[in-house]
Design goal:
CATH architecture of one domain: 2-Layer Sandwich
Number of helices: 7
CATH topology of one domain: NE0471 N-terminal domain-like
Shape: extended
CATH superfamily of one domain: Uncharacterised protein PF10387, DUF2442
Distance between the termini: 83 Å
Radius of gyration: 29 Å
Structural class: alpha+beta
Order of helices and strands: HEEEHEEEHHHHH
Largest sheet: 3 strands, antiparallel
CATH class of one domain: Alpha Beta
Length: 162
């Protein structure tokens, strides 16, 4: 039976992963440091700021304190927030979905203040600021004819008035 074979393969993969991949055995929210602390089966504790994790960024201390660990230890769940994080991903520094992480990274990049960016900003300031965008004013003959033509709606309005 296919389902029995799939179940056996998934069980074997789960056992292999449990034996070779670090997993959570305890987790708590430390109010003093404002960090989530995850204790792994390897004896290492990993911590991160909830402000850096998707779904936890605006949570209160009470909401963060209620952490559940999934039975094999590969997931953390906050029932009051309906938020989940995958422990192997946390170990890789991934604290949210790709889209969420990209948005966070993009926002940080826009605020970047490198020496080159500061120097360019100063030079632009000396010249009166960033140059205005040039507006392209070259129209083709057909585009000019279309611009001069009245729309059907304008023609109908003119007829009704007369």
């Amino acid at each position: 039976m296919v389902i029995r074979d799939e179940y056996a393969a998934a069980t074997a993969e789960g056992k292999r992963m449990l034996a070779t991949t670090p997993h959570a055995i305890a987790a708590h929210y430390d109010r003093k440091t404002d960090r989530i602390v995850v204790s792994l089966n390897t004896g290492i504790d990993v911590s991160f700021s909830p402000r850096d994790a998707q779904g936890l960024e605006d949570a209160s201390g009470e909401e963060l304190a209620a952490i559940e660990i999934t039975p094999p230890g590969f997931g953390l769940h906050w029932p009051k927030l309906d938020a989940d994080l995958y422990v192997p991903a946390i170990l890789e520094g991934i604290l949210g979905s790709r889209r969420w992480m990209a948005a966070r990274l993009g926002a940080a990049g826009g605020r970047s203040r490198s020496k080159a960016k500061i120097a360019a900003s100063r030079e632009n300031g000396k010249l009166g600021g960033r140059p205005a965008k040039k507006i392209r004013q070259s129209y083709s003959a057909s585009a000019l004819r279309r611009r001069k033509k009245k729309s059907p709606r304008a023609v109908n309005r003119a007829r009704k008035r007369a």
